[in-house]
């Protein structure tokens, strides 16, 4: 391949051990020109859904041809399959445990293959570190030009998890969940444009969001618009509705975290009575 | 450009989310050969002055031609301007909120431009993540060879913050502040060579530094010279006077942190009386 | 050199300061094509043995020709020597304080040189940050093609620390130590295949490991084989015996951490009596 290949890493390995560095060594031995980019290694240990949301938030910003390694893998060494998902523009190398579910949601035409071509593995293959022995070397071979069809047969029974979509609990009412709390304490909810399109319009309707016995009814368009201490809703950079406080942590101020539930109601438009 | 471009990142984004990885994806889409280097993503949230000091400590060690992205941006989405500061050797892409103040201090000839050329932005531009939509793509275009003049008009009314210099409180006395506590617990003060040149000479005069009711009067030239548990002063690698303890945390031992104040007095030279 | 050089970094610098970024700036000024890989910057401050184990766990996974910078350096600025260790395939640039001891254990033919060629240093050389002023520039010059012999004379009296091997306390009994606790809470012990070869066979003998008044006698081959809450032993990816709990932290469940001691006994095979 003429162009410099890009390989990304999304894992729950943290940065306190040699794990991530070791993966990069394996990759550079196979694809010496690769640009290797860490997307995130702070996925909570074994939290497959969090890993799924993290890669889904970032992969579209990478150039076509990028190979993404996504490893949150509590079943390492068991019979769960290693897979490659391909969208044409992007490829994803991961365990078949649902960690690509949010990619599947975003990419209906994804093609998934079971990795069976052991010639691309680092031998001997351990039963405790498949990121090093299977995922990294397969991704590096793909990035270096190996044909994607060569890794193994296509499968259609890959594991797909429910990615925590909001549920309608009435005509204009939904129950939602906080997917994660970001570095700044913003609460990322599971409400996206496809769930409640009206809320993401340029002129959204009035609404009421109740979380932790607190009522939020302001939608802001930038963090700095809000008054100090005011909790407000905002469409965040991941495309989800967020609950935020200007220059402070909404998570701390509201006392809620990942997994917190809330209700959201759109108010019917006020009748305009011309007198 | 023939040479491999270098782009650095200094932010308050932390490493627990996908933010930094996403920036790198955007950069590699525009400048595929770039070497991207993290200077620091642990600037405390919204702490503009800390970001200013961090980039100022590091940029000079990068090769000429490097483009530095510096984003601590509580006003993202507001009217604060995006800017490029250029010293000839280095360029800095940042919000105009003072985060380049310590660079301005070090580079009197810096030229600053207001970024107005929206053709270099990632569209659509959000109001919550300008690092992704404005700063990263503009920096990548600059690194890839776009002429710096093309980003927008020169301005002279850019924001410049007071970078916490020490104040003289007597003929040989100063009040200083702890700018930050580093990984090892060393207290980085705001006393630099230009403030008290005598103190940074090969044979400095006697002095007394009082912090947290403790008196420090030893200047050491390496950490390992000091006795265990001894708090001492040392000229650190950032060029500032530091307060340190050999193989222990001065911050913990003295019970002080960022923002702590102290007084420093140079003792008049002892009179030598020949009898 | 035709091939893209690889330089790795293993330090106790953390990621909260500009230190690591600054090193990379220095390297790219000398070796602009280098791929720079972080192995780990979370070595506990001044913990030379931990640094030694970290680099030893990772370096073999890097391509031949890689230059590894290893800096845990409480004696920076003192008379301790800067050195380069070379195995032919890998080179290691480090202070001579024992931080390469586990590499020496693994590579009996290592050749060590005292770095004396100041022309490769970044001038002026500070007495507080030799990683920036000596180790990074020397490593970059080596990676860029400088002959290893040019850095200084060979030495044989380099510092070598005891790397915490287990001690036999009886015919089939050993006293061991927990070397570190990894991100997942697995306890990495100091028992390796060369210490007790029988335990690392495909069909290992029965054993009893006693730690924190708890008895462990199951060896698993993958984490996910174990029942929830069960503490078990496993041969981990670093080649050491580990104590683990499936999808939970063995460190927290057993209430032990780095430095904890344990005893390990191989049980004599049961006599099979045919009646």
Description:
The structure is a homotrimer of 275-residue chains. Chain A is built from 5 helices and 16 strands. Chain A has helices spanning 19-30, 48-58, 101-106, 130-143, 250-254, and strands at residues 6-11, 35-40, 67-71, 82-86, 91-95, 111-114, 154-155, 167-170, 173-181, 187-192, 207-211, 214-216, 219-220, 231-235, 240-245, 261-266. In chain A, strands 8, 9, 10, 11, 12, 13, 14, 15 and 16 form a 9-stranded mixed sheet that branches. A 7-stranded mixed sheet of chain A has the order 2-1-3-5-4-6-7, with helices on both faces. Chain A is elongated and about 80 Å long. The model of chain A has no long low-confidence stretch (mean pLDDT 94). Chains in contact: A-B, A-C, B-C. Chains A and C meet through helix 1 of A and strand 1, strand 2 and helix 2 of C.
